[in-house]
Specification:
The protein is mainly alpha-helical. The chain has 6 domains: 3-63, no CATH class; 135-307, no CATH class; 329-380, no CATH class; 401-456, no CATH class; 463-525, no CATH class; 544-609, no CATH class. It contains 27 helices and 15 strands. The strands form 7 sheets. Strands 3-4-5 form a 3-stranded antiparallel β-sheet, with helices on one face. Helix 7 (158-169) runs antiparallel to helix 11, helix 10 (205-220) runs antiparallel to helix 11 and helix 11 crosses helix 12 (264-273). The chain starts with a helix and ends in a 17-residue tail after the last helix.
Length: 611
């Protein structure tokens, strides 16, 4: 290794408590009369040796010391201080170490929520670099010792300290003078007895506010009003979290890193009691709460008790976020939620998804216990159910053709089945495979659905009709006589029964010029010519211009646009007419026929009476 890296400094400075790497580097270089450029030279040498050699490794080589900068954060510090937070800035700031402890040297300490007083020298060091270090009195020292105890036990967090510090700063004399008030109030409002009285979900909020006021008034003095208001906002999210746990009957968990930690035995007792006051009563107290809707690091609590970002509308109320007990699948669609497979979906449950979720999940059919996959939105909005039971999904051995209709599967053409196995077909499908009749050997195509409904080989069916004398000719000879002789592609009435739904062509019994299509069963039921009954329009056959040529000579040129007499029936709609004498009237065709023309004209002058 490069001698520049392994040659130790003459002066190996000892790092001080919680000192930062940059602070130690500056002191080490100064003690050895090195410039800042020396550090850059060492870093270039380290990079040439290996890319993994960090600056701290270089410092250890140059000093022969095992270096550790700063100090690990305590559990209380990690509660909101792991990342820089706008609600607890003191936990993320570096500060200067006590100047008496460093014997006049400038030593920067790593970020952390630690005591703002040097107990050894009775000196205020604060929580950031801007603090002016001054001597403190015995009262402040006692407050600092109590600060240590509360901080180490987790009762005084960076967020709570910042809330109290901001409240006392409105009236107080500064951080040094207010430390005793901050510590005393923090100690009072974090005891188990006080929290039990304050946070009980079944307690009226007016009573809870009175409890908080009584606890603060004797300690904060003239700061009591702003401190009480600040703490009311501080505890508000905790009220919500406890209420949420009671409503959803789930174990209490802080919904946010800055929610006040409630003793577990208290939270469990509240959930078991299942007594909760409506959240709207918290909003409706008085002006105390109106200013406390925000202040959770960009979070708010809506009127219905849902916490969300201060930007935009509540995601729970708008169903863009899931909240158990409010808009989760188990709450909104309990019957469908019961079908969610408890094993195949891993950690996804009906309590952590919404009815509109688009994640594909495993469901278990309640009727046959089939497992199938679908999204929650398809189940709740699209009406999707078990694909196996509805034959949308084919599973061999359950709903394939071989299992449900083995006789039909045996009639499949072997050549066709070689590429389309029966285990991949279902009886309700519209696909048309190739079949071989077991009786006559005829090859034909027919849908699986029709085969499952009883249809089969057409020649055998026709032969059966003729042999049993149940054809249309035998049962309804008068209707069979109307069978069109040339337009049915060789089909004969002897080959069909009166209940067939096949559509064929018929002759009109009223007009020899009319022929029309109609299903056999409907023809038997009495349906007649679609042209005569005006159910089907045919140009130059049954249009208005053809059936009433004299009437349409009085058809108004433009008032009926876009209607045209050659493209419509003579129905009951009213149309505009203009006679030869210029009279404009609106009448239906039947009324125009009945009046023989224009009602404003003399009868002998009306169009249908002229000939």
């Amino acid at each position: 290794m490069n001698d520049l890296l392994t040659r130790r400094y003459p002066m190996t400075v000892k790092p001080l408590h919680r000192e930062t790497e940059s602070s130690y580097t500056r002191r080490l270089l100064t003690a050895n009369r090195e410039l800042e450029s020396h550090q850059k030279q060492l870093l270039r040498a380290a990079k040439a040796e290996t890319a993994t050699l960090a600056w701290r490794d270089v410092l250890e080589l140059k000093t022969g010391r095992r270096l550790r900068f700063g100090a690990p954060l305590s559990a209380a510090e990690r509660n909101g201080a792991e990342h820089r937070c706008e609600l607890c800035p003191d936990a993320g700031n570096v500060r200067l170490m006590c100047a008496l402890c460093t014997k006049g040297e400038t030593v920067v300490q790593a970020p952390g929520f630690t005591n703002p007083v040097c107990i050894r020298h009775r000196r205020w060091v604060g929580l950031d670099l801007s603090t002016r270090q001054t001597a403190v009195d015995a009262t402040t020292v006692r407050a600092a010792l109590r600060f240590d105890r509360l901080q180490k036990s987790g009762r005084l967090t960076p967020h709570l300290y910042n809330v109290l510090r901001s409240a006392t700063a409105r009236i107080g004399n500064g951080d040094v003078a207010d430390l005793a008030v901050i510590v005393d109030v923090a100690a009072a409002v974090t005891t188990g007895r006080f929290l039990e009285e304050l946070l009980r979900p079944g307690t009226d909020y007016a009573h809870a506010y009175a409890v908080l006021t009584d606890a603060v008034t004797g300690l904060a003095g003239r700061n009591a009003t702003p401190v009480t208001a600040a703490l009311w906002g501080y505890f508000r999210p905790t009220f919500w979290a406890l209420r949420h746990a009671v409503i959803t009957a789930t174990p209490y968990e802080p919904a946010w890193a800055h929610d006040h930690a409630v003793p577990q035995h208290l939270a469990d007792a509240y959930v078991a009691a299942h007594q909760v006051i409506p959240f709207t009563s918290y909003n409706a107290e008085d002006k105390r709460t109106s200013s406390l809707l925000i202040g959770r690091g960009g979070l708010v609590i809506c009127d219905h008790g849902h916490q969300h970002s201060s930007k935009g509308r509540c995601p729970v109320c708008t169903n863009s976020a899931v909240a158990p007990g409010y808009n989760d699948l188990a709450t909104t669609h309990p019957d469908i939620a019961k079908e969610l497979d408890p094993v195949l979906n891993g950690t996804t449950t009906a309590q952590n998804i919404q009815a509109a979720a688009r994640l594909s999940l495993a469901w278990r059919c309640p009727r046959n216990r089939h497992v199938y996959w679908a999204t929650a939105s398809n189940r709740t909005q699209g009406g999707t159910n078990c694909g196996i039971c509805s034959n949308r999904t084919i599973v061999a051995g359950i709903n394939d053709l071989t299992t449900t209709h083995p006789r039909l599967a045996a009639e499949l053409d072997p050549a066709y089945e070689a590429g389309h196995p029966a285990t991949k077909m279902c009886a309700g499908s519209g696909d048309k495979p190739e079949w071989i009749c077991p009786d006559c050997g005829h090859h034909y195509k027919m849908s699986l659905y029709n085969r499952s409904q009883g249809s089969g080989c057409e020649p055998c069916r026709r032969a059966g009709l003729r042999s049993t004398r149940t054809s249309l000719v035998d049962t309804h000879p008068d209707i069979a006589a109307q069978w069109h002789p040339t337009r049915n592609n060789g089909k004969q009435p002897e080959d069909y029964s009166y209940g067939s739904n096949d559509e064929v062509y018929w002759l009109c019994t009223t007009s020899a010029a009319h022929w029309y299509p109609q299903r056999i069963d409907r023809k038997v039921q009495g349906y007649g010519c679609s042209l005569c009954s005006s159910r089907r329009l045919v140009l130059r056959v049954n249009d208005l211009a053809t059936t009433d040529p004299l009437l349409v000579t009085e058809w108004h040129d433009y008032l009926n646009v876009p209607k045209r007499p050659e493209l419509m029936f003579a129905g009951t709609d009213r149309h505009w007419w203009k006679c030869a004498f210029g009279h404009v009237k609106q009448q239906s065709v039947p009324n125009r026929r009945k009046s023989r023309g224009c009602t404003d004209c003399e009868p002998e002058d009306r169009v249908l009476n002229l000939n």
